[in-house]
Design a protein that fits this description.
This protein has a single domain, classed as Rossmann fold (3-Layer(aba) Sandwich), CATH 3.40.50. It is an alpha/beta fold. It is 39% helix and 19% strand. Strands 2-1-3-4-5 form a five-stranded parallel beta sheet, sandwiched between helices. GO terms for molecular function: oxidoreductase activity. This is Multimeric flavodoxin WrbA. It holds the Pfam family FMN_red.
Amino acid sequence: MKIAIVLGTSRRNGNTANLVEYFIEQYPAQCTLFHLSNYDIAPYDYNFNNQDDDFLPLITNIIENYDAIILASPVYWYAPSAQMKVFMDRLSDLLVINKPLGRKLKGMSAGVIATGVVSKPNTCFEEIFRATFNYLHMPYIGMLYCTYADEIENIASHQQYLDKHVSTYVTTAFA
């Protein structure tokens, strides 16, 4: 299974980026990272005046070449990062002006990787993803969430913690 991981975070070496890198290290042959900071993606526009940005080439690559997509974001105020929200909003392009491409999302597995300061994120965070994937008829494989509250300030330095969470996620999501 080829997995596209789309990372939306403002900190290249932050906890979410570290968790994604750790995940990729465990499954390097299957995973490819797409860091949204490397792309120029404009916000959704009802007049579609944003078609010269990087969204369409990026999503086309993902849809045409991968079996699953994992969206990775820190939890910011109960929601995904601004970069991730813009990316997700642009999926609307695939429902209006790029319908043939959008139809190819149907059946593609989709999941979430996230980090935050609370031990368990508020349900509204995951629901944004779950509802989006459900609307697009993408089987939801669940969320890998790790906290960095209290004693875990840098999740990358906690090998045992990561091993447990990543292996549990992979076992349930990709079984």
